[in-house]
Design goal:
Structural class: alpha+beta
Low-confidence stretches: 15-21, 28-60, 381-390
Oligomer: single chain
Helix content: 25-40%
Length: 390
């Protein structure tokens, strides 16, 4: 077995959860049954060959056998492919930017060390008023200011409580009592820093940046971070000048981020096309929805629709896999539990579908669960030489 196959088998063993335990059992059963019946196939090869001649049904080496109930458990699905019109897009690079008018500033309510709540980082979604973190003066020069304020407040309150009855009896003067009350009010104001130590989000949105790390020191009023509100993300797309004539009617684009499955729809900002910082390019701008994990500076592949249309066979990108540099898809035989690998050549893609050559219209291509078909092929569930020549 090749190193490639061994790596995939190891990945298979690590990835499969209890949900797919039945696949192991069924695959093992198939392998044992195949080995146990190998002699029978050898002894009765002529009989099976005669049957093949009668039925006109022949299977070949390299076929993968996955029964219908296994395919259902593993989520393996097929779709019939046929020639259809395919819009050839312009593929360009895009960079996420933010609209300053929709940004909120996270500021420090007091001086001290910042401690962020769990899950708070650039790209995290937050709601207005939600706690982002806290500021502490513990361990700093001068001691814990909040603790000192608390002690001062308690002492001031005790002093007012002590003087109140004495004031009524005329033992202390009104001036002494009023001074104690003033000290209590000042202590309460100082203690308000206890509530102020909580850092909150000023608006709904996504944290676009953090200016300090965990444990960093800030002064009161310092900017701790920025939040991009709804509609605050803009995608700048740089397109070669030679393609600018094809962009007049573009109102939307499909955007593919490396770490997000599928594509995101972005709407064009009407009339905003301008020279790009890169010579020989023009910039288009699109509005993006607020998304977790997408921050300023994120890059994406953008598919811009054009009027160029041709009739091709296209399959979902997820249907295409790579084997030692060769692109391929898996095809299911009609009325059978057998699948086979078919090499293909890929062409243009719109981020969801991709043009392929090497397939014929009407074939049943695996569009979901491709990984399991490939792993079944490499796991040896169907023993070598078990060709089912009927």
């Amino acid at each position: 077995m090749s190193n490639d196959s061994s790596v995939e088998k190891q990945f298979f063993n690590n990835y499969i959860t209890m949900k797919y335990l039945s696949f192991f059992i069924l695959s093992a059963s198939l392998a044992l049954a195949g080995c146990g019946n190998s002699h029978s196939h050898d002894m009765h090869g002529d009989e099976h060959a005669d049957e093949a001649a009668e039925n006109g049904h022949e299977h070949h080496d390299g076929e993968i056998e996955i029964h219908a109930h296994q395919a259902e458990e593993l989520g393996i699905k097929v779709s019939e492919v046929k020639p259809a019109e395919f819009t050839v897009p312009i593929v360009a690079a895009g960079e996420v930017q933010y609209n300053p008018s929709s940004q909120g500033v996270i500021s420090a309510p007091m001086s001290g060390k910042v401690s962020f709540d769990k899950g708070i980082s650039a790209g995290a979604s937050v709601r207005r008023g939600a706690c982002i973190g806290r500021i502490s003066t513990s361990g700093m020069a001068g001691g814990d200011q909040l603790q000192a304020a608390k002690i001062e407040l308690e002492a001031a309150q005790k002093e007012v409580d002590r003087l109140a009855p004495l004031r009524e009896e005329g033992i202390v003067t009104a001036g002494e009592y009023n001074q104690a009350v003033a000290n209590l009010e000042r202590a309460r104001n100082n203690m308000s820093g206890g509530a102020g130590s909580v850092v909150t989000a000023p608006i709904d949105g996504v944290i676009s940046s953090l200016a300090t790390g965990e444990g960093g020191f800030v002064n009161a009023g310092d900017v701790i971070g920025m939040i991009a509100g709804d509609g605050g993300m803009t995608l700048r797309v740089d397109v070669p000048v030679r393609e600018s004539g094809n962009l007049k009617n573009v109102s939307a684009a499909k955007v593919k981020f490396p770490h997000i499955d599928g594509t995101v729809e972005a709407s064009a900002v009407s009339g905003v096309n301008s020279p790009s910082p890169a010579p020989g390019y023009v910039s288009m701008y699109f509005r993006l929805p607020v998304m977790d994990g997408i921050v300023a500076g994120s890059y994406a592949e953008v598919y811009l629709p054009t009027s160029s249309v041709k009739s091709v066979i296209a399959v979902p990108l997820a249907a295409v896999t790579d084997r030692m540099g060769q692109k391929m898809v898996y095809v299911k035989e009609r009325g059978s539990d057998h699948y086979r690998r078919v090499p293909v050549t890929i062409g243009a893609t719109d981020g969801e579908m991709v043009e392929v050559t090497g397939l014929e219209g009407g074939e049943l291509v695996v569009t979901e669960g491709v990984m399991f078909v490939r792993l079944a092929e490499n796991s040896g569930a169907t023993p070598p030489g078990h060709t089912h020549n009927h």
